[in-house]
Amino acid sequence: MMDAGTLNLAWAQALVDGLAAAGVRHAVISPGSRSTPLALAFLRQTAIQCRVVIDERSAGFFALGLAKGSGNPVALLCTSGSAPANWFPAVIEADQGGVPLLLLSADRPPELRGWGANQTVDQQNFFGAHVRAAHALGVPGADFNPGYLHRLAARVVAECQGALPGPVHVNLPFPEPLLPAGEWPPVGSPKPVTVARPRRPPAGEDIAAVARCLSGRPGAIVCGGGDFPAGFAQALAELAARLDAPVLAEPLSGLRFGGHDRSRLCVRYEAWLRGAGAGLRPEWLLRFGAFPVSRSLQNWLGAASGATQVLVSPGGRWLDPLHAATTLLEADPVAVCQALLHAAPEPAHPSWRAAFAAEENRAGRLAAEHGLGTECFEGALITLLLERLPAGHRLLCGNSMAIRDLDSFSGSDAKPIAIHGNRGASGIDGNVSTAAGLAVLGPTLALVGDVSCAHDLNGLAAARGLDLVLVVVNNGGGGIFGYLPAAALPDFERVWLTPPGLDFFHAAGAWGIAHRRAETLPDFAAALDSAFAAGGPQLIEVVVDREASLRRHRAYWEAVASA
Hints:
The radius of gyration is 25 Å and the shape is globular. Helix 7 runs parallel beside helix 10. It is α/β, with parallel strands linked by helices and 563 residues long. It has 3 domains: 4-173, Rossmann fold (3-Layer(aba) Sandwich); 204-362, TPP-binding domain (Rossmann fold, 3-Layer(aba) Sandwich), CATH 3.40.50.1220; 370-562, Rossmann fold (3-Layer(aba) Sandwich). It is built from 20 helices and 18 strands.
C-alpha cells in the first residue's frame, strides 16, 4: 500500500496530468504548505508553464490576464485558510467578464474542519454563485481510479469554456504527511478527452423576423466590450455595409483597430451625443457585447426605448440594464451577422448614415481646433500612445477615467491592437497584475490611473522579467469624481479624491523596475520610445494637472454640443 504522502502526490499528479491533456498550459501558484502535492505535480508536468506569485490577490488577477489574452483556462493554486478568499475580486471579475479560470484550493481533511485546527475554514461552495461549477473532492483514496481524475480534469476545463465561460472551483483536501517518504510516482500522459463545443447558430425564423424589423429602416449597431470570436469584425463590417448602418463601437469591442472595413464606425459619440446628435432617433438597435461605458451612449439608448432592440448574447445573459431589449438572440455573434447578411435586408435611406458621419467629422474638427493634441492631458496622451504603440502589442486599459478617455479619444486605425480591460465588475483592483498576466503572452502596455496603481502595487512584483510598459496617469487622485456630484461636497478630497501621495520612483525601484517621469507631451513621447526600445518592465509616470484637464474636457464637450 502507498503511504499517505505518496498517495497525495499520485492523486495530485493524476489530476494535473489530466489538466495538461485537456489543454491547460499555464498555472499560477501561490506558496503554501497544504497545497504542496499539487504545486509539485504542476512543477513536474512539463506541458504546463508555472509562475509563482506570492500575493494571492495579485495572483488571481495575474491569472485573469493570462486567461484573457490566451482565451484558455488558467489554473490558479493556493493553500487552505484565508488564502482563497484573496482570489474573490478576481473571481467576481472572471464571472462578470466571462473569463475561464480554474480555481484549485488545497484544504484540510474533513475531520479537522470545525474543530479549531490551524488555517482551517469552510471552503465548500466558497465562491457561491460566482462560479460556473464547484467540485468538493474527498481525500485521496488508496484505490483511486486515475481515469476518474483525468475525466474530472476534462470536465472542469470544459465547464470553464462553456457557452458562458467563467471560473470553476475545485476544493482538494490533503491529509498529512503531504509528500512521499520514498520514491515519487511518475508523471503520466493520459489521452485527451474530446469535448465538442459547437457554435450556436440562430434559428432561421428568428433571423427572418429580425431581418424584417431592420430592412429599409433607420437603425444603428452598438458594440460594447466582449471576447468576440475570430471573424467577428469582418462579419459585422459586412452586415453594416449591407444595412448602410452606423456602428457605435467602443475600444473593447475590437472593432476600432484592424484591417477590416471601418468606414461606418462612430468613435466620437461621447462628445456629439451631448448635443444635437442626441436627436438622431433609430427605429432599431442591434447590440453586441457588454452595456456601453459611455454615459452619453447609455442615455441615447435609454431615449430610444421605443425602438426594436435586438441583443445578441451567446451565453444567454441579459446585458440590458435599461430593460429595453425586445429580442434576445442566444447565438454565436459571427453566425448572427452572417445569417442576417444572407437574409439580405434593405439598407436605410443614405441620409441616415450621412447624419452620423457628419457628427463624427464635426467632433473631430472641433477636437483639432481646441488643441486637444497639444497639451499634456488625457486625450492627447492617448492619441500619442496609440500612434507610437507597435502593431501587435496588447493594451490593458484601467477603469474609471482611463477607459472613458480611451473611449472618447482613441480614434480608429488599421494597425492591429488587442485592447483589454476588466469591465466585468469595473473595479480598480488588480489592473497592474492583470496587465502582467497579459505580458506573459507578449509585449503589453497598460494605461492606469495613480489610484489604480497604488491599489495594486504588488502587481509590480508580478511584472518582473516581463515586457510590460505601465503608463500611470498621475493626476492627484480619483479624477473621475471631479465629474460627479461628490465634487461639491466639503470632504471631497479626503473621502473621494483620495490623492495617494505615492512616490512612483521609489515604488518602481522597490521591485527593480525602471521609472520615467513625463510632464509634457514631448517628454511622454520620448519616454514611450525609450521604453519600447528597451523592453519592459518599465513604469512611465505622466503628470497631469487635474483641474486643467477637467476644464479641457468640458470645453470640448460644450463646443461640440453648441456647434
